[in-house]
Amino acid sequence: MAENTQAGSNAQKVQPTSVSRYETIRVPILRPVEYPIWKVKMTMFLEATDPEYLDRINDGPHMPTKLSPVVAGQEQKSVPKEKKDLTPGDISSIAKDAKVRHLLHSALDNFMSNRVIGCKTAKEIWDVLEVRCQGTSAIKKNMKTILTQEYEHFYSRPDETLTETYDKFCKLLNDLSLVDKEYELEESNLKFLLSLPERWDLKATTIRDNYDLAETDLDEIYGLLKTHELEIEKRNKRSGKKTKSVALKVEEKLLKKETSKKKAK
Predict the structure, then answer these.
(1) Rounded distance, CA 60 to CA 246, Å?
(2) How far apart, in whole angstroms, are the C-alpha atoms of residue 47 and residue 34?
């Protein structure tokens, strides 16, 4: 009986290991073609796990220092600490670089992991991934030019729905943001409204006249347009008018082309 009591007492003394809830969240996996969005997700993941992790990928590993010994006629300066002089805080801070390196490798498949296997610090891994997946600064500059031109010539295609145009425009704005190209809200809102087909002219003008485009989110503008579209569809149904879907219109257009080709033969 005494043995059981002693065993129970010892069992109660065992404390569970404390694990950060963020460390149990799955690390974002890198797919090279989706590097820009992975970079955003991974940055958020590292910051949520430990804000100091961002310092490791931006500035490199923490190197504890101390003042050099006092020597007559010489100015004291910071020098790296020897291992015997490291405090528990220093050791913990140094270990964070290894933790970030582990997290980065956990986000890579074997092929990509082999590309950075020789990197000694988390910052080295981060920088190598940046170059391999997004290219050098010259390549990024070229991509910025291409996306800017795409923005300047953006328009809705005749066979596109409002939602398709909106989704395409949002993706373009996100891609531009990832290469550090931002547009003022008023400018991008106006660009979207002007890119719509002629049938939207009246509603687009109404929005421009009644809303401050510099203060209105693009999502809200899309919501206004979508609501208007649904109201028109409902009105047409009540009046007995039939509206054709975009897909049906495209199908009919293709059928007419095929018919014309056959007649030409």
Answers:
(1) 53
(2) 20
Calculate helix-pair angle for 162-178, 137-152, nearest 10 degrees: 150
Mean pLDDT of 187-208: 95
| CA gap 172, 189 in Å, rounded | 13
Number of C-beta neighbours around residue 105 at 10 A: 16
pTM passes above 0.70: no
Rounded CA-CA distance 206/224 in Å is 10
> Which are the contacts of 25, defined by CB distance < 8 A and separation ≥ 6?
45, 48
Residue spans per domain, the chain: 13-134, 138-264
Measure the CA dihedral 32/36/38/41, to 10°: 170
The answer for residues whose C-beta is within 8 angstroms of residue 162's C-beta and 6 or more apart is 196, 200, 222, 225, 226, 229
More confident site: 95 or 9: 95
CB atoms closer than 10 angstroms to residue 169:
20
